[in-house]
Amino acid sequence: MIRDSIKTALTGAMKAGDRPRTGAIRLIQAAIKNRDIELRGAANPPEDDALVIDVLQKMIKQRRESIEMYRKGNREELAAAEAAEVAVIEGFLPRQMSDDEIAAAIDALIVETGAAAVRDIGRIMALLKDRHAGALDMGKASAMAKARLS
Q1: pTM of the entire predicted model
Q2: Does residue 67 sit in the same domain as residue 111?
Q3: Of the given ranges (27-41, 60-74, 134-148), which has the lowest mean pLDDT?
Q4: How many helices, marked H, and strands, marked E, lie in the chain?
Q5: Cα–Cα distance for residue pair 74/53, rounded to 1 Å
Q6: What is the CATH number of the domain that holds 135?
Q7: CA 60/CA 54 separation, integer angstroms
């Protein structure tokens, strides 16, 4: 489970005295704990790894937006710190699909569902999320699917 690997990594980072990595892992744990609290009493809580992957992907998205803003403001040192956190967070995600693999998956789903126009993108994206959640960036996949269907 990803949650266990995060806990183990925190222990290792603390023993190694790696303060930036320790801080990033603590941020990850805090975000996961916040999500756990939000979902208390939920009728159908998501599977644990799916929950953790979702939290990690949102954290990466937030940091990439921050990096862009820092670079626009000529704050390269802050952008570098955010990029280091992204690297730590990405280390806990499952292997991400390459652009070619995403394109192949989209093409297979288009054939499978008989999608012919952009209006069919909802079905394609729902199937992509069901089959490959956590292994791809849904924003990138959505743009690729739109391009293929238009």
Answers
A1: 0.76
A2: no
A3: 134-148
A4: 7, 0
A5: 31
A6: 1.10.10
A7: 10
